[in-house]
Design a protein that fits this description.
Layout lengths: L5 E4 L4 E4 L5 E3 L15 E4 L3 E4 L4 E4 L13 H8 L9 E3 L5 H4 L3 E3 L6 E3 L5 E5 H9 L7 H4 L8 E4 L3 E4 L3 E5 L8 E7 L2 E5 L7 H5 L10 H18 L2 E3 L8 E2 L4
Parallel strand pairs: 6-7, 7-10, 10-11, 15-16
Antiparallel strand pairs: 1-5, 2-3, 2-4, 5-6, 8-9, 12-13, 13-14, 14-15, 16-17
Length: 254
Amino acid sequence: MSNPIQIVPLSEGAFTVDKTKVFNPFDPETEILNSRPVGSMLVEIQPFVVITNNDVILLDTGLGYNDADGKPQLHNNLLKAGINPTQVTKVLMSHLHKDHAGGITLTDDRTGERFISFPYATYYVQKREFDFAMEAGNASYIPEDFSLLEDFSRVEWLTNNDGWIGDHIHYQLTGAHSKFHQVFSIVSNGKTVFFGGDDAPQLQQMKNRFVAKYDYDGKKCMELRQQWWQEGQEKGWTFLFYHDIKTPVWGENN
């Protein structure tokens, strides 16, 4: 008998970020947002695991920080959820901005050496995004976080504007939040889980006509969000919101 699809949010905490692109930890219980620099946004950093009958799928990889014990926070979060990092079978990358791609590799605090975080998984990365990110030269991308992918044997470079990974994961290149951003739909047991990365980062943005200055194409982002929101409600999708502090998962029962 088929098991229902499982979703596990892997929160790394709340942060404020401003035009410097530096992510500063923020405690909503004790701190006041207005005390941060003007223009600071409050966001959650939250990769997800989606477990289907055949796969343990990681959606984006967070900031890549180590906990106080020197171990990768992402690995610790997986272990707390009862998932051994070696069980991850697929890593799907929406784009390679540092708050999404920092955990592609891990760093030994003692030696500074970097390793692929999930050596038994297959990474699915948009090739045009990788090539652009390696040469971008701006604060949003940290090439050393992901450059090891170039020589890693378990990378599937996605080169089309849309397509299927196996028979249950659909990807679509949007070029909306970043120049080569992509989104994913995971279809399992008659259910669709939609991950829009930074094209659709928060629930509130789905409900309002909102154009963000930080998007590569803010108008396209807004239009896509409206399209996905309408289709998702009609078809009973479950949405995953990477930057939403209050509502990381929104489904047909909400």
